[in-house]
Write a structure and sequence with these properties.
about 70% helix, globular, 2 strands, mainly alpha
Length: about 350
């Protein structure tokens, strides 16, 4: 039985290209907001957000390279096709590694309680930048990057479909790490959430005497939602490229379905925008500071909490005597808190996400 002829190139319509270009632009804007908030407010530079900074750099480079590829809509292998394919391969693979590095960091610090020193951070740098760079340099040197007929991409260049060992290089330059992330991220975040739930259950009998108990539940619920959303959003965005990858291997004409093409294009390019929504727009502290900055200080009275204080939602007392009584009550509460076991251990659980 004769082998089926190869699929013709996937034709990109104007609306499809426009949707993916808008996704690239929003991802660039989202990554820029993450980088800008990190540079603007030094007090927000926690270790998890330092890791998020490197992820944002990878997502920014990825979105820019994809933008150029979709804009050009390559029809053959050329020097700028190889350059664009190399940049997107490096940035996209690095984004996978940094996403898994953040999950691993949260698991080690929250569940294992291991101190996160500079050695761990340098290990993340070596793996998340070094491995993608080595793979990309090898692919370019062996001439594996080139025109792929948009059957495993959306206008940009990736692994040349004419290469005999294209499957191996498709796996090495992205797909094996993508599939590994599908498995690793949900497992790590489920373990983290289980640990947080056990910590909350252990503290439940002490909540009546904890002065911060009213503010504990909303913060923990927000953290739990983010822990759920991180792997869910990653898989939802990336799964379409995996589907088209499998369809291409099966030589199925469904790979050229316009809806699937658009979902693939948006999913591969919108990671920076999704991270911005979760860690800027859906993080109250950063969101309020951005609003205050945009209003040039005229919005006023936003009152974000500083260093774990819950004073932002408390109304000022009109009399000094009441303030003195409050101070005395706080001192008493602090003495009570010293006898409550394990309370301090919950702070990093809530703040690290």
């Amino acid at each position: 039985m004769a082998a089926a002829p190869p699929l013709p190139p996937t034709r990109l319509w104007g609306a499809e290209r426009g949707a993916v270009l808008v996704s690239c632009a929003l991802s660039c804007l989202g990554s820029a907001l993450l980088l800008g908030s990190h540079a603007r407010w030094p007090e927000l530079r926690t270790r998890p957000r330092q890791l998020l900074l490197h992820l944002s750099l990878a997502d920014l480079l990825s979105a820019l390279s994809y933008f150029y590829g979709v804009l050009r809509d390559f029809q053959r292998t050329s020097w700028d096709c190889v350059l664009q394919g190399a940049l997107s391969t490096f940035a996209n693979t690095s984004s996978f590694f940094w996403t898994m590095a953040i999950a691993l960091y949260l698991y080690l610090t929250i569940v294992r309680g291991s101190p996160a020193g500079s050695g761990l951070l340098w290990s993340f740098h070596a793996v998340s930048w070094g491995v993608p760079l080595a793979i990309t340099v090898a692919a370019v040197a062996l001439k594996k990057i080139g025109y792929d007929a948009s059957n495993v991409s959306v206008g940009w260049c990736w692994v040349n479909l004419d290469a005999e060992d294209r499957l191996l290089w498709m796996l090495l330059t992205g797909k094996v790490w993508e599939i590994l992330a599908y498995v690793t991220l949900p497992v790590l975040y489920v373990l983290i959430r289980k640990h947080i739930n056990r910590a909350h259950a252990a503290l439940s009998e002490y909540r009546p005497i904890l002065p911060a108990a009213p503010a504990l539940r909303p913060r923990s619920s927000v953290a739990d939602k983010k822990l759920i959303l991180i792997p869910v959003i990653f898989i939802f965005l990336r799964v379409w490229s995996t589907v088209r990858f499998v369809l291409t291997l099966c030589n199925s004409p469904a790979v050229q379905n316009p809806v699937l093409v658009v979902l693939h294009g948006i999913g591969n390019t919108f990671q920076g925008g999704a991270n911005c929504i979760m860690f800027v727009l859906c993080t109250r502290l950063v969101r309020e500071r951005l609003l205050s900055l945009l209003c040039c200080g005229h919005c006023g009275q936003l009152g974000w909490p500083r260093h774990g204080s819950h004073s932002s939602w408390q109304h000022p007392q009109p009399h000094k005597d009441k303030d003195k009584d409050k101070d005395k009550d706080k001192d008493k509460d602090k003495d009570k808190d010293k006898d409550v076991p394990g309370r301090e251990q919950t702070k990093p659980l809530l703040s690290s996400t």
